[in-house]
Amino acid sequence: MLRLPLGLAGVVAVTLWAGASMNHGCQDAIKSLTHLQYSPIRDMRRTVALVPQKVWLAPPESLSVPVSGREWVPEAGQLMSGRDAIAARYTDLGAADDSSLARGERMYSRLCTPCHGKAMAGDGPVAARFMPPPDLLGAMTRGRADGYLYSYIRFGGVIMPKYGQALTVAQTWDVIHYVRQRQKASPR
Fold first, then answer.
1. Can you give the C-alpha Rg of the chain in angstroms?
2. What count of Cα atoms within 13 Å lies in the side-chain half-sphere of residue 43?
3. Picking from 78-82, 111-115, 140-144, which range would have the lowest pLDDT averaged per residue?
4. Nearest Cα to 122, choosing from 109, 108, 137?
5. What are phi and psi of 10, to 5 degrees?
6. What CATH architecture applies to the domain 71-185?
């Protein structure tokens, strides 16, 4: 009769000893109940400083605009030394008919007006807070090739974000047709 309670007590003692030795005794149980989640040193003079080199840094977002270095064109698969060299590859195969101009006007008013403005002078509501975009009716933009405008719209530029995800190839050419038509109608 006495063997059963003694055997059971022995098993319990061995189990507690094995568990306590793996968890460093009862100290872990006491610390988990009484340990505060913040450092005992709570003034700013003796706190541990965050070392920025030891922190993991996230890569830039996919829609961010690079501020240094050379441009990368995914379709070309190479680094560009100049946009003009790559822009020569992009040629328009469609005609600038009335439906293309109407589609281009709709796309321009939806995507381009916030920065370039309705008059294409670079005076949109967003441009007032940031660096103003170029005048699309000015001589500098009129002198650019259509492929240059296409690559700038699709892949972005220095301050312009890329719109390749928002516009198809045909819609991009429609916007270019609309801008060229407005440049012929009222150049600056």
1. 33
2. 2
3. 78-82
4. 137
5. -65, -40
6. Orthogonal Bundle (1.10)
Counting every residue, how long is the chain?
Answer: 188
**122: closest CA among 188, 184, 58?**
188
Burial group, residue 154, by CB count within 10 angstroms (0-12, 13-18, 19+): buried
How far apart CA 40 and CA 47 sit, in angstroms, is 10
The pTM for the full model equals 0.56
As a whole number, mean pLDDT of residues 65-80 equals 52
Half-sphere exposure in the Cβ direction for 12 (13 Å, CA): 6
Residue 79's pLDDT is what? 46
For residues 109 and 101, what is the distance between their CA atoms, to the nearest angstrom?
12
**Domain map of the chain by residue range?**
71-185
> Where are the extended beta strands (E) located within the chain?
71-73, 78-80
Per-chain mean pLDDT for the chain: 75
Spatial distance between the Cα atoms of 99 and 115, rounded to a whole number of angstroms: 24
Residue the block writes with tokens 């507690």: 16
